[in-house]
Amino acid sequence: MSKKKKVIIVESPAKAKTIEKILGDEYKVISSKGHVRDLPQKKFGVDLNNFEPEFEIIPGKENVIESIKKEIKGKEVLLASDMDREGEAIAWHLSQIFNLKGKNRIVFTEITPNTIKKSVETPREIDIKKVNAQLARRILDRIVGYKISPLLWKIIKGAMSAGRVQSAALKIICDRERERFLFKPKEFYKVSINVKKVKANLWSINGKKIKQENITKEIAEDIKSNVKQVTLSDIVEKERKKSPPNPYITSTLQQDAATKLGFPVSKTMKIAQALYEGIDTKDGHLAFITYMRTDSTRVSEEAKQMAQEFIEKNFGKEYIGGSKKKKKTSKNVQDAHECIRPVNPEITPDIAKSLLSSDYYKLYKLIWERFMASQMKESKYKERTYIFQSEKYEFRTTYSHLIFDGFEKIYNSSSKEKEKIELEKGKTYKVSKVNIEKDTTKPPARFTEASLVKTLEAEGIGRPSTYATIISTLLARKYVKKEKKELIPTLLGFTVEDFLTKRFPEIVDKKFTALMEEELDKVESGEKEWKEVLDKFYSEFSKYLSTAQKEFYTIDYETDLPCQDCKEENYKLKIGKYGLYLNCEKCKTNKSIDNTINAVLIENKMFIAQALENHANETVSENSCPKCGGHLVRKKGRYGYYFKCDNCDFTVSGYKIAQAKCPKCGSLVVMRRSKNGKTYWTCTNSDCDFMSWTEPKNEE
After folding, report:
1. What is the structure's pLDDT at 695?
2. 209 to 206, 238, 393, 471, 679: CA distances (angstroms)
3. What angle do CA 352, 451, 345 make, to 5 degrees?
4. Angle at the Cα of 400 (from 397 to 406), degrees rounded to 5?
5. What angle do CA 533, 298, 326 make, to 5 degrees?
6. Which pLDDT tens digit goes with each residue over 48-73?
7. Which residues of 541-558 are buried (b: 16+ CB within 10 A; e: fewer)?
8. What is the mean pLDDT of residues 107-120?
9. What share of the chain is helix, strand, coil (3-state, %, to 5)?
């Protein structure tokens, strides 16, 4: 047993190691390794008459509890789990298990010597309002999961379960797919003119600005026929300031890491957690960033001072940013939190590169550059707009010249300067070319992880700590799949979404889900009692539940797929003992169907024909067998998809066969899926190490 007089309990071994290094011999820092107590795993665990929860030690955590009990005997104990609701709940559960009372709770936004030493000197009592907000969320999710999931399992074989927030996210993804399916493209034309070295776009007709999608073929042809020269009617000059970005919060970090680094949201949070808690480096165990689950852009005065000193020393006083106008933030922002930033600006990306592995370095660089840019001056551009006139048509082009780079010194902008052009105002110029490009309007884009997080945040669905779980759960349940970064609802996903919409409309309603998040925020702020929120929810939910339990529900959708046998009627999509299947009511034939194919459900009709055609094209690879030259046919086995030769005994696991051979050894290349749903290409030759995120192509 340790002879140290004080014990600090955190939830992570890495965090324990970092803090113990800072505090030295007086403190023993130990880890609970996450949650130690929760609702029961094998029963409901909530009394619906008074919403009192029943807790049990999480199976497998008994030894952790015993170890902590021995360490804290007769010693002063401080609870230092994370500062969000989950962390406060962990601290509360530990205090309940070990009968810890009084001011024993410490919180911090960064693991640095100053912050940790200050926090141990100023412990507070556990924030029971924050704990109650977490309990209310946990019980809400337990009610939805335990009450709806059995109905799902009974009706839809293959459905895993129904989560409260995930169900609303699933509906958002399905609704976007419906929008895309129903979208009617509109033809339009892009028109521009060349005058000397200048390319100017059509701006207005008869003094009225025209949207690009409203430019018709007739307008384009009229310009081509009649606009032979233009007069430079005006040159408008102005100075434009470009504001630095705000530092990262959880959602914006997740979005940028997905867009710029290609990281799934779950990977971003895993790396950010490690950068916060501390990592073993050649310079010792170091923490790199502040707490990564936050919705506040607040920067502490100490952090501002450090940033300003770094900026002045490295770039000059003129680069130090002024005080920003505070933007209006959403109701739920917790301003005791800070933004996500480096704990020490002096650990530049160049220094971090020698301390961190590749992916950790990339994320740290993103955070460091964003924070430092947020503390710098705005950049300044001189803009010159050339306005060309030809009777009723007006054309414009704008050139920008950088005057002062400001924050763009370290945070590169995507805007490029055009070559400076000198033209005389009032002079008439010959049009050397009219450029006409035919195009069509595009449907709304499918969600990526980044754009879904942005939408969930804007709609008030979920909180910083839940975005990663929402996405990973939908992928794991196969309600959604990820292809080329796009999140696409599956046949199973649409079937589940339709059931929930018909039987539990509030659960999938984004406004209702956002309202529940606001209610939980009010519990945390002390405006509402947690049991009052649960009672209000359950009184409505129980009505839907009672109806769903009594009324018969079955799957019986029309489809757009003609029967392969009689060819007279379309199949219907039904549910049977083994899951979804296709049935022709005329010739009584049944056909199995893969419930992970793309689909769209509109007004009780499932559109699957195109998806099945695409699916079939990926199913057979002709003359591809490396053993005999036969056809490789894709099949689904106990452990996933594989290809089997129709002529010999050759088999290989994989979802798709590449058109090109391995660029290293010339062998067969197959597409496989990783555990998190990401696809990659790999050589089937066991002696070859070829692996790529993109399909190899034949050299032309």
Report:
1. 86
2. 8, 21, 10, 41, 45
3. 20
4. 155
5. 95
6. 999 999 999 999 999 999 999 999 99
7. beebbeebeeeeeebebe
8. 92
9. 35, 25, 40
**Residues 6+ away with beta carbon under 8 Å from 679:** 483, 655, 671, 672, 673, 693
Residue carrying structure tokens 């999140």: 487
Would residue 655 show up in a list of annotated catalytic residues for this protein?
no
Compute CA 556 distance to the chain's CA centroid, rounded to the nearest angstrom: 34
Sequence-distant (6+) residues with CB within 8 A of 19 are 8, 10, 27, 29, 80, 111, 116
At 260, the amino acid letter reads K
Give dist(CA 620, CA 647) in Å, integer. Answer: 13
Structure-token pair, residue 606: 């499932």
Q: Of residues 27, 189, 248, 291, which has the active-site annotation?
A: 291
Q: Where are the beta strands (DSSP E) in 418-555?
A: 428-430, 433-440, 480-483, 486-489
DSSP per residue, 612-674: HHHHHHTTEETT--TTTS--EEEEEETTEEEEEESSSS-EEE-SEE-SSPPTTT---EEEEE-
End-to-end CA distance of the chain: 70
Spatial separation of the C-alpha atoms in residues 632 and 404, rounded to whole Å:
61
pTM: 0.82
Q: Are strands 556-562 and 605-607 parallel, antiparallel or unpaired?
A: parallel
pLDDT at 323 over 80: no
Whether the Cβ atoms of residue 461 and residue 514 lie closer than 8 Å to each other: yes
374 burial (CB, 10 Å; 0-12 / 13-18 / 19+) is: buried
What integer pLDDT is reported at residue 344 of this predicted model? 95
Q: pLDDT tens for residues 520-550?
A: 999 999 999 999 999 999 999 999 999 988 8
Residues 364 and 373: their CA atoms lie apart, in Å, by 14
Q: For residue 582, which of 566, 599, 562, 553 has the smallest C-alpha distance?
A: 562
Q: For the beta carbon of residue 223, count every other beta carbon within 10 angstroms.
A: 23
Tell me the sheet residues that pair with 430. Answer: 229
Q: Which residue pairs, CB below 8 angstroms and at least 24 apart, start in 563-566?
A: 563/587, 563/589, 564/589, 564/591, 565/589
Q: Are 180 and 489 in contact (CB under 8 A)?
A: no
592-645 residue pLDDT tens: 888 888 999 999 999 999 888 776 655 666 667 888 888 888 877 767 788 888
